[in-house]
Design a protein that fits this description.
The chain is 46% helix and 15% strand. The chain is built from 11 helices and 12 strands. The chain has a 6-stranded mixed sheet, with helices on both faces. Strands 4-8-10-11 form a 4-stranded mixed sheet. The chain has a two-stranded antiparallel ribbon with strand order 5-6.
Length: 293
């Protein structure tokens, strides 16, 4: 068994509970955390005693998305390139980062992944939740892709789960979605009280474990490989290419104020600059309804 620093790996009840364990950072997706997660998925795949995987997050979040708090090279204007970087290097870097192999690794496992979403589920965190084969959430769950507000991309997995119109409604704005709205648009299997979330996921997993593993594998592939035959992999490859273009379409009027806000007020200032114009959010704890108005 590998030694993990950023996740917890707990075998029980014929399955395994994998917990993203950076609660102080709302389980933001660092490179180390992602690497450990995929090692853990391979570990579960190879273990004949494990019949299903539950993926969740420690603390107040499933995951806040990709870690944007780390150090970054200064931006050089008017072209908005990181210092010492060419346009070609910027594009190539984003192409490499946004290859679909990590998410396809999840998608093509022979054992089902059940996401148990508690609290914030943002950006890349929402992609991990939706690439899971089933997704359950607590009543306090909040989904969003706020990175689109800072020149970034959405993911085709939202279109696959929510449908074209719902995916555009939230993918073009970065607006928050509470658990009930997420259920309505089809990205969730069920909404549950927070105290019941993990237990219900284990109950579903135990029912899956009553079926022979070969049958589960084949019927999982009926769905996942069927969607690949319809073009899912090609859509995700294109998603990666378009992501590189999105991240390279640097605008000084958008990015410079964000950088200045970060320098003046840290991450709090950065998020206020990015998300302030969108307040109140339509759903979730930052909505007008949550504020009693």
């Amino acid at each position: 068994m590998p030694d993990f620093e950023n996740i917890l790996y707990d075998k029980q009840r014929k399955g395994v509970l994998i917990t993203l364990n950076r609660p102080e950072a709302l389980n933001a997706l660092s490179r180390d955390l992602e690497d450990e997660l995929h090692v853990a998925l391979d570990e579960a795949e190879a273990d004949p005693e494990i019949r299903y995987i539950i993926l969740t997050g420690a603390g107040r979040a499933f995951s806040a998305g990709y870690d944007i708090a780390g150090g970054r090279a200064p931006t050089v204007w008017p072209y908005g390139l990181p210092e010492g970087t060419s346009v070609a290097e910027l594009l190539d870097g984003w192409r490499e980062r946004d290859k679909p192999h990590r998410f396809m690794h999840m998608w093509e496992l022979t054992k089902p992944i059940i996401a148990a979403v508690n609290g914030w589920c943002m950006g890349g965190g929402s992609w991990y939740a939706l690439f899971s084969h089933m997704t359950y959430a607590s009543e306090a769950a909040v989904f969003s892709q706020p990175e689109v507000r800072m020149i970034s991309n959405t993911s085709f997995i939202w279109t696959l789960n929510a449908g074209y119109k719902h995916a555009l409604r939230y993918g073009l704005t970065g607006d928050h979605i509470d658990a009930e709205e997420a259920l309505r648009i089809g990205i969730l299997n069920q909404v549950l009280p927070a105290d019941d979330l993990i237990e219900e996921c284990f109950k579903v997993g135990e029912r899956i474990a009553l079926v022979s593993p070969e049958t589960v594998k084949i019927n999982l592939y009926v769905a996942t490989m069927g969607l690949e035959m319809m073009g899912l992999r090609n859509a995700l490859i294109l998603n990666g290419e378009l992501s590189a273009l999105a991240h390279s379409s640097r605008r000084e009027d958008v990015l410079r104020p964000l950088e200045e806000a970060r320098e003046a007020g840290g991450m709090r200032g950065f998020l206020q600059q990015r998300d302030g114009p969108f307040q109140p959010e339509p759903f979730g704890p930052r909505s007008a309804a949550a504020r009693g108005s």
